[in-house]
Amino acid sequence: MNTSSVTADRSWTRPDTTSRLHGGQRRSIPHLLVGVLLVLACAVGSVLWSLAAGDQQQVLALSRPVSVGQMISLADLREVSIAVDPAMSTVAASQASTVVGRTLATSLPPGSLLTPDMLGTALIPGEGQAITALALKPGMFPPELTPGAHVVVVFVPNSATGSSSAFALPTVPAPWQATVTGVTARADEQVTVVSLQLPEAAARQVAAMPAGQLSLVMLSGSSR
Questions:
Q1: In Å, what is the CA distance from 204 to each residue of 107, 182, 217, 222?
Q2: What residue numbers bound the domain in which 169 lies?
Q3: Which pTM was predicted?
Q4: Mean pLDDT value of segment 59-66
Q5: Distance of CA 69 to the CA centre of its chain
Q6: In DSSP terms, which residues pair with 176 in a beta bridge?
Q7: Is 13 exposed, middle or buried (0-12, 13-18, 19+ CB in 10 A)?
Q8: E strand or H helix at 216, and its extent?
Q9: DSSP per residue over 27-41, as a string?
Q10: Are residues 113 and 137 in the same domain?
Q11: Residue at 46 is within a domain
């Protein structure tokens, strides 16, 4: 038998190992790239999460509404964890003992973050503003009313007797927008005194209205 021819014939049946090796390498390169990208993505995500978590700080907020001039108790405070902007002034939760016993300079709704400027001497009324009070019976204001709420003061003519001659109004006055600064219930008189801050001219008009003919409407965005 011709040995050379047999060897030549076997060369046709021998698997091309070199070709398979290179083909496998070509197929594995995309998978390697995907794996590398996934590892990098995980690493970047972990770094970003760590940075974000590191910016979280425990600060003080109000757990319930507090009126201007009211002394703060521990029950009025709660801790919240937020990412604080360096330009934002807050009160750290660790300083709660220095806040208890101090008074608020303005009325605030629950959930408000405390800042150093909110503590101390009353900041109201502001420039050009004035405060007036209304003695309101149940049904003339929402029971959810709290300091800091935004309201509209509405004139309601007495449907039974109409406006008295002493307070006859040529036209129904337009509603006045105001901010509630205090809510004090007087059980002995069955009325609730609501203090309102609004522009000076509007405060004079509200104060001149007949007793019992003003109601409050709480606007959206007010705390409940």
A1: 22, 18, 19, 24
A2: 129-218
A3: 0.48
A4: 89
A5: 23
A6: 153
A7: exposed
A8: strand 214-218
A9: HHHHHHHHHHHHHHH
A10: no
A11: no
Question: Scanning the structure block, which residue is given the tokens 């019992």?
Answer: 212
* pLDDT given for residue 21 in this prediction: 47
Q: Identify the pLDDT of residue 192.
A: 92
Q: CA gyration radius for the chain?
A: 36
N- to C-terminal Cα distance for the chain? 105
* Length of the chain in terms of residues written: 224
Q: Which residue has the tokens 């709420």?
A: 149
What is the token pair recorded at 70? 């009211």
Number of domains present in the structure of the chain: 2
What is the distance between the alpha carbons of residues 60 and 79, in angstroms, rounded to a whole number?
Answer: 5
Do 91 and 143 sit in the same domain of this protein? no
CA distances in angstroms from 104 to 108, 154, 191, listed in the order given: 8, 29, 25
DSSP alpha helix (H) spans, the chain: 3-13, 17-55, 96-99, 200-208
Angle at 166 between CA 163 and CA 167, to 5 degrees: 50
Percent of the chain beyond pLDDT 70? 66
Distances (CA, A) of 92 to 39, 72, 141: 37, 16, 36
- Listing DSSP states for 67-92 in one string gives -TTPBP-GGGEEEEEEE--TTS---B
Tokens 């509603």 found at: 175
